[in-house]
Amino acid sequence: MKAVRYVALAIVGLLILAVAAVAIAVAVIDPNTYKPQIEEVVENKTNLDLILAGDIGWSFIPLGLELNDVEATLEDERLVKLDQLVAQVSFWSLVTMSPRVDTFLLSGLDANLSVDENGTGNWTRVMPEGEEQPQQEEPDAPAETAEEQPEGSGTSEPLNFNVESVEISNARVHYEDKGTGQAFTLEDFTVNASEITLGSSFPLDVSFRFATNQPQFEVQGDISARLAANEALNEFGVSDLEAIFDMNGEPFGGESVRAEIAGSLEANLENETATLNGFTASLADLTLNTDLTVNGFGDKPKLEGSLSIDEFSLKALLAALGQPAIETEDPDVMKAVAFSTNIGGPAGTVELSDLTISLDDTTFQGNASYALANSGIGLNLQGDAINADRYLPPASEEQTDAAAEEAPQGGGAPAEEGDLLPLDTLRSLALDINLGLGELIVSNLTIKEIKSVITARNGVLEVQDFSGKLYEGSFGAKVTLDARTDNPKWSIGSKVNNVQTLPLLTDLAEVDMLAGGANLSVDVNTTGNRISALRSNAKGDINFNLAEGEFTRMNLTRMACQGIALANQESLSTSDWGTSTPFNDMKGTLKIDGNTLNNTDLVAALAGMRLEGDGTVDLAASDLDYEVGLRIVGEIHRDEACRVTEYVENVVIPVECRGDFAEDPAGLCSFDGSRFRDTLKTIAANAAKAKAREKVDEAKSKAEDKVSEKLKEKLGEESGEKVKDALKGLFGQ
Description:
AsmA-related; 20% helix; 47% strand; 32-stranded mixed sheet; alpha+beta; AsmA
């Protein structure tokens, strides 16, 4: 026991001697006398020129070092400058293996970093280029590896680390890329923290100014919070967070913008949990609020909480951010936008429930989901009513004229056409979307009870249902897009039932030339990923029927009467013909062949006439080429010159409809004088047949009378009459 006591006393004695030696050395040795040697060693071992202009001080209790006015240059350019560095550690805390930093102070740091035209940073030239060292041969692996340490033998107690005070002030770092001209500066960087102890919270204040030249941008930041970390360094917390960032520069059009962040955060790395409490983030007048808990940091996190964006004006936000204003037909739209939802769902899926989106006087409600494994999106959203025309840019004559001037002329080269859809993105989509809207006004059309069901899987996108009510009728459509190849396939089917064409065309294009309940059946297939390809590859049919309709801006009866009057060699006396032509059950089929629509079976029933027609529509040139015939089947008008005689009955009065239907639809159709020659031939043939019948009847009558007279002479009056009646049957009368 005495030996152990003597050893312990010896150790303590040695420790006391060592402490005493250090204390004496600190008290006696002046480090400033060694500044030339220190500068020389740095210059010999590096490419730096070290200048120790200020004093060097050190202390024993607390054990510390102080440097003042230090500068290092590289190739005659300042690399680093330091006004003051103070680092003090409690000596007795080192002895007890519980290190505590009394003070760490860094003041006036100025670092200049640069990259030359070749992409080489100046910091890489600090060390001189040495000779290549020969590679040493790796020693042979030992035959036997060390025995594994018993479980738990390598563990140690958590480090009890304490810092009394940390202060960084007036720090500056400048970086420049001479190849691109890009530069940024971090300056006025200040950090203050005190009483930093693991297991409890401590205050932290940070401020800085950051600026770039490409683009010109500047931000002044001030951050204050309380930070905490446990002794195992696997649990962290931020509370009382308040951060303010004042920004300006080119991204904001020269405007000054403030962003603010507040709230608290807790994270546990061992349990893989994180919580945001009372978190708010604002940019100008846009404010986001959330309370969120995350369980699991891997591929399948589970989220629970809420998220909302306070009502804000999008137009005011853009103005505050220095962005171009959005011009709308209605200047009062986009001034009330809001968003709110609850967040939940199973692990690996983010579900938004009680989702509400407000846009001015329109509200959308529903739910949404996002699957992290396959990026699958689910959306069920129902809205009440929206007038989309209010959000369109206002039309002006200047814009219309400019668009006409920019339109390619006939001899000019066509504008380069791009792909319509990103096929790679479509192939990765997983969608289940159900959208509904009570009323939509778009292009001046009013559509009600809109329903849309969209799915996407493995490169096939389907609009399973797109339907609604439109002008006393209804419509429904289905679309399939197969994007699994680089030449996607489209299949389009649609049905329209009893949609009133007059108000629809009037609201859509201010065209009031056709009325009636439209019934359509569309079946079209095409391929391609550009508009021109979709048009040229289109194949299909459009069956149409218009019941109890009317041509409101053309009088086909007048055109027919013009032809009949010419046939009768008379002039029409009626001057008030009106401007419309009613019809019943106009129907036909349009064969789609690329940009051309062909129709060979157009028919319609008119008063005293049957409309028959065939022709083509060139969608690329907006050109209509139709030959219509008005077949006379009965009396069509009270004008005497338009009377239907046996010569004109069942003849066809020709009408032609030709021209650009995008310019003047009402002026496309007129009486076809060139084809009327064929009609005159038919009328002449009918007249010749009529005259031939008259001559035959006259000859029959004369022959009958002659035979009858002779029989009367031979048989007597009474018998002659009986024979005459028999002869009428013989001559076909």
